[in-house]
Amino acid sequence: MNAYLAVIIGSLAGSWLLGVLSNILGARHMPPNPPPEFADAFDAQTYAKSREYARASMRLSAVTDTCDTLAIIAFILAGGFDRLDTAIRALDLPPLATGLAFIGALTLAASLLGLPFEAYRTFVHESRFGFNTTTVRTFVLDRLKSLVLTVILGGPLIALVLLFFEHAGPLAWLLCWAVAVLFSLGLTYIAPTWILPIFNTFTPLEDGELRRALETCARQAGFELSGIFVIDGSRRSTKGNAYFTGLGRRRRIALYDTLIKEQSVEEIVAVLAHEIGHARKGHIKQRLAMGVAQTGAVFFLMSLFMSSPGLFAAFGMERISVYAGLVFFVLLFTPVSLVLSVAANAISRAHEYEADAFAARATGNPGAMISALKKLSASSLTNLTPHPLEVWLHYGHPPALDRIRALSAFSS
């Protein structure tokens, strides 16, 4: 067997196997009763429902991952990439348009393949447990908006990458790196004003006790906010959330209306202090730096492998092309991508602990953060005892139980 093909098939199968093993172990890693720390937040009925929700989510994840993996492997072994390339070349388009059509067709096919699972997750799985509030109209519009944004924003970026690798020679990867970083920074800068409002309505938080408390917290932490907004998260789900968005003077906090409904003023202030902690501890800059470095490394490795005859032979391709090389490298990169994802999750979990500690010190009220975590866990039916492998593979946040135990040290 072609060495490249062996690596790609093996890594796809290995990633799938790790996911399945994680689900099996996770389903068995649920004690019959909630941990003592959650005794006041989870009654017997809520805890039983959370266990069933976790297991149902694992089953759905296993089915989705299995279908995706089988589809990719079958497409590779059936010579699907070469057939698609031949069909698009028959249209006799200009070289750049041919490359964009090839990548666009694969992206569209992947989206269509995942659409039934997305619909099932939204309208069956989430509805079954009382979370879904998305209408069919909103669901369809969200997908159409995402598709349009992908074409408008992603199309030019891919076009530049193709042009650079086609004509810029040894410097191509450096140019691609620079453009990708500038694109990412620009997207982060304009997203709060131009992109996120396409999907949700952002309403300035009205003056009152909550707004004054949040502004006081930010001011005492020396953190400048461009605005505090309420996002209509209840249009899609009953789950609560909050996040920072934007860079520099465009930093704003978005609070889900569901979060405001469920949490007290002190708890929401603790959530804000946690988010401020990420900025004060330099986590945002660290993640940005890691993202920049990783992007550069990916483009450099891509420049080494994307034109390899052996790589194209693995996919049964008759012709070597830059656009197909980009796609094939992404698949070849699968094992490295998995390792980087695991490492990024580990760093993210460490950052969450640090942000929690900052919130506990900044507010002087660790109990508020603990209470907020308990309410969020109960309202979203969080799995309180995920298996370590599941955490290692997928969790960017530590389990709520571990965070509460760490915060409890500030109360003693």
Q: In words, what does this structure look like?
A:
This protein has two domains: 3-132 and 283-411, no CATH class; 202-262, Metalloproteases ("zincins"), catalytic domain (Zincin-like), CATH 3.30.2010. With 412 residues, the protein is mainly alpha-helical. A hairpin with a 6-residue loop joins strand 3 and strand 4 (252-256). A four-stranded mixed sheet has the order 1-2-4-3, with helices on both faces. The chain is 73% helix and 4% strand. The longest helix is centred in the first third of the chain and has 34 residues, at 44-77.
Structural class label: mainly alpha
- What's the tally of helices? 16
Number of domains: 2
**What is the β-strand count?**
4
Report mean pLDDT, rounded to a whole number. 94
Q: Low-confidence parts, pLDDT < 50 over ≥5 residues?
A: none
Calculate the terminal CA-CA distance, rounded to whole Å.
61 Å
Q: What is the helix content?
A: over 70%
Question: Radius of gyration, rounded?
Answer: 23 Å
Short description:
The protein has 412 residues and is mainly α. Helix content is 73%, strand content 4%.
Give me the secondary-structure topology.
Elements: H1 3-28, H2 44-77, H3 80-89, H4 95-128, H5 136-167, H6 172-199, E1 202-204, H7 209-220, E2 227-231, E3 242-245, E4 252-256, H8 257-262, H9 265-280, H10 283-305, H11 309-314, H12 322-332, H13 334-363, H14 366-379, H15 388-394, H16 400-411
Parallel strand pairs: 2-4
Antiparallel strand pairs: 1-2, 3-4
EC number: 3.4.24.84
Subcellular location: Endoplasmic reticulum membrane
Protein name: Ste24 endopeptidase
